[in-house]
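U., I forgot to send this yesterday:
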Amino acid sequence: ATVTGAPSKLTLPGDAASFHPVSLPTSAALDIRLWWDVDGRFQLMSGDDRTILDDVSGDPDGVFTIAFDSDGGPFVQPDAAGVGELRVSFTHQRLTFNVTVTVVEAVDATLTVQPSPPFADYGAQASDLRAIGGTSPNQYQKAKVGLTIQLSDGAQHDVSGQAVY
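Result:
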């Protein structure tokens, strides 16, 4: 059996990680299929009544729930940051497997300011913008600003080039 559409990471609706450029999804439709190795056939089981989606046993912290769209298709809906297991089984087959669901959120933002062009003895102070030698009247370095967003799983995303004015 396989599940496709199960994302490696989700985030909560409205969280900074759901917006560009991080753009993590806030839900994910599940495509559940039973494959037969003998002849390569498969049976789509996503909306089948014989498919059991257990979002409780492997998710004691309530990281996600399973919801259904108007056509009966299941999807993962995040509820809290963390890691949980979706247990998939079938009433007509002796088969059970787990799908890891990771829900992250933005937990920190780090702003850096560096002089541009840089100079050799730069000491990481934003106030250290200096006159550019040989310019008359004096012209000064510009500040290069960077912004990094850290997610609850430790991943970092540079969003420096995404300023909106």
